[in-house]
Amino acid sequence: MSLEKDIQQTRSFRNERHKAIVNMIYTHNWVLEKLKDVLKEDDITHQQFNILRILRGSNGPISTLQIRERMLDKMSDTSRIVDRLILKGLATKSVSEQDKRLVDVLITEKGLQTLSRIDNKHERLDDILSNITYEEAGMINVIFDKIRGSY
Predict the structure, then answer these.
(1) Distance separating alpha carbons of residues 143 and 26, to the nearest angstrom
(2) Could you list the residue range(s) of the whole structural domain that residue 99 is in?
């Protein structure tokens, strides 16, 4: 289906760049909905999933400031999301020993197990892009990197 049909667009786009921007936003939201369907089985949001992956990759305690810098969604309320992860037993936090003004966050064993379960769903996650080839996925990655490099 075309973008115009999906969003019931009756007027033409200003140009292909305008259409591309709308298409990226629409597709981003579409992919996010598919990701949410997979994550809801483990009762976590995509922002919580992002933070858990950051924590796992940090190989030790990391401050909420460092988490925010690495997050995909920079507008997220990192502290609130971390607090929800703590309530679920997926992370812990403590005052930083290096800087008492900062809070260090660490993934728990339960958090690692949750990520492991999600990792085992890699085929379902990959299926979100099953309509494109690996070569096309690579081309999209190059194009997206190029777009961000333009600023």
Answers:
(1) 17
(2) 43-118
In three-state secondary structure terms, 25 is helix
The answer to whether residue 63 sits within a structural domain is yes
Which neighbouring-strand residues pair with 77?
none
Which of 61, 50, 67 is closest to 115 using CA atoms? 50
Contact 26, 6 (CB under 8 A): yes
Q: How many domains does the chain have?
A: 1
78-137, pLDDT tens digit by residue?
Answer: 999 999 999 999 999 998 788 888 889 999 999 999 999 999 998 888 899 999 999 999
* Closest by CA position to 6, among listed 26, 29, 32, 28: 26
Token pair 């299926």 is at which residue? Answer: 127
Residue 33 tokens, joined: 């909905």
Q: The domain spanning residue 56 has which CATH number?
A: 1.10.10.10
Sign of the CA dihedral 69, 71, 75, 81?
negative
